[in-house]
Amino acid sequence: MTVVVTGSSLTIDEVVQVSRHRARVALDPQVTARVEAARRVLEQMVDRDEAIYGATTGVAALKRVRVPAAQIAQFNAGLIRSHRIAQGPAAAGDVVRAMMLRLLNHLASGYPGVRAKLLSPLVDALNSDRLPPVRSLGSTGVSDLGPNADLAADLYDGMQLAAGEGLALLNHGAYSTGAAALSVAEAESLADALMVTGALSLEAFGANLSIIDSAVSESRPHPGLAKTVTELRRQLEGSYLWEAGAARNLQDPLTFRSLPQTLGALYDAVGYTRGVLAIELNASQGNPIVAAAAGRVISVGNFDIVPLAAALDFVRIALAPALTSCGERALKLLEKPWSGLPPGLNPSGGVDIGLGELGVAQQALVAEARLLAQPVSFEMASTTHAEGIEDRMTLAPLSARRLAEMVALGQACAAIELVVSAQAVEARGTPQLGRGTARAFAALRSRVPFVSRPEQFPADLEPVNELIRSGVLSDASYSVQPAGPGSGRAAGRSTRRQ
After folding, report:
1. Do 131 and 265 share a structural domain?
2. How does strand 135-137 pair with strand 87-90?
3. Burial 153-170 (b: 16+ CB within 10 A, else e)
């Protein structure tokens, strides 16, 4: 697969393809002409010795100082060197690829006003998978100055930069935006997994399916709620729960009963943030911008990406109740007063606690995840730096990083819910499962067996975590090979294994 960079049409899915699956990139044939036209406008203004921020003047507190034409190359080199302020560990490879792709698309738009030759190092690095070391901490999210300087120092080492190009390589939000695209894609995949594990928990609990009656979403037309009601009905098609008298309660605990609402809110938050990213992946995030058609270079505040930072906060806030519910469903399935099943879902009784202690890990994971939901986009900057000019921050890179961390914790929560709900299903005698939940059950049992003896306890859930991360649970085309002897049944009506 090749992603064609146009400067205006980059998508989240293309970012994932390049960053995670090493798709190649190529420039649209129209990019060079657009970039060169914008560059001519800037160069004409430079030739007239007009004041252009970061091109013919210094930056920040030195914006009043003019840069002599003979010192422009030296100024650019010093600008990048002085902004290598990033701290901490190197960013992950997929984040660096996403950053480079977003920067390439940014430069291809023409708004930064750079020469066309600056695009080639990005194309070459992406296609050869040569990843510059980019440190991950130290950006306030009003331009990712430190990470951007790391990238520029590596990619353009030895290249003499022309007027305005040093600042153009620093003054953008490619690091934050690329990382955000990856974390939002992961959040959506996690929501899909929680849909499946939640559906299996409904069967494991013997829940009342009135909660996914079509009237639920018709009477409350949120798009996310409509999606969850429809998808849960699809997952549970053919389930025993549709039979008369199958439900154990008229009304179940809220973490079961409100599953469509909590997941629906998460889908709505992800959908909103996808819309924001559709703009930000293709927006000018720099200062100044070249309005080529008007023949102008304009000082702007487009580096302030608070729309993205706030949207990422929104996703984390919506993810928190979904994970709280996921954790509580697993805990209730493990406890006899709620599930009506043996404590810890131990089929043999006695003093063995079965899977009961997984509830401790689940509580810890959910609690840590909730702490990451705290919004960051309203955090305040110092009003002292750079003569008090740079007195705002968005913390967009922190918002993206916290979402990625929260999703990783959520994947572990979903893995525990899947293991517990599958054990509970078999403890109930493995009634007929739904079309989607039967596939999930089979996929799990190909990795983790039914626990009938203490020595079968699944101390390592990484195979299940990988199943959650892979996205196959929600992939309708995915099929599970028949499990080997003693590894568990795929699904369907049968008796509980002793």
Report:
1. no
2. antiparallel
3. bebbeebebbbbbbbbbb
